[in-house]
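Hello, quick one for you while I still have it in my head. A protein chain has come my way and I'm curious about its shape. Can you walk me through what the tokens say about the fold? No rush at all, and the record is pasted right below.
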Amino acid sequence: MVMVIDKSLAIFIDFENLALGFSHPKDRFDIERVLERLVEKGKIVCKKAYADWSRFALYTGPLHEAAIELIEIPKRSQSGKNSADIRLCVDAMDLAYSKDHINTFVIVSGDSDFSPLVSKLKELGKHVIGLGMQPSTSDLLRDNCDEFVYYEDLVPKEHISLSFAGPVPDTKRKVFTLLLESLLALRRENKEVMWSSIIKDTMKRKKPSFNESYHGYRSFSDFLEDAQKAGLVKLETDPRSRTYKVSLFGAELETVFPKRDIDQPDNPNKKSRLSKKSPIPPKNPDKESETPNKKKDSSPLNGIPEIPPLLECPAMPVQSRDEGLEEYSFPTRFKKSS
């Protein structure tokens, strides 16, 4: 069983650079779409955003509700440039040296000035993820990161519709939807084996208030078994650890195990028992069968069967009793006295 190391993420947002990208589009910058994607990669332990917030007062409310620390960097009146870039680099390097448990750094910016910071973090063995908007992203920064995600590729939260055979309470529908969302997140992260422990950690990251006992389950294994009965997942048991892992889920079950019609066989070349058979003609003793392979009945109409003639055998020579015993010699005591 392979040890899976959870990622601890530190997010640093250069809001000045983001403003260059989303000032023209009609839709507003949605921080929830960013966090919804990053929380799938690991546990977020630090979130900081740098800007002159007097210019972006419209976004301070959503950022504050997302528990992001807002670092105020006033713009210098003389040069027209603030010191947000250098402040972000200092805080990132300080965190990289002082907090060893943080192994992933997310730079939300497209400025090429952060390329030396990315290279230094990679020297320290950190995993660097870049996130930015296409109009304001430099190719130098994009190619230097271990991963890069465009904001335009972050689709809104998917709406998953579930179909059940019987009535299911609304609370279970919500928790089953959260389960499928977590499985989709793990599949996007290219997780080869989706262990039950990894699934539970992902569900708790996406919704910290998740608890299987609130929905009436004694353990998380019981919750997965109930999801399998509902036809949402397919479980497998590890032979060594005896723990569950999800092999298939959602639409994958329909592609591998399609819903079969009762009248249609599994093999189209093989005839089904329920297929239409040729009609059997009714038995009529007065009418002969028209089957060509079957011999015609030789019995007359009166019901008396005809006896076929006996085969003629060659006649055997008849020997007398005395002639047949001549070849045997008996003692005289056994001979009959005359």
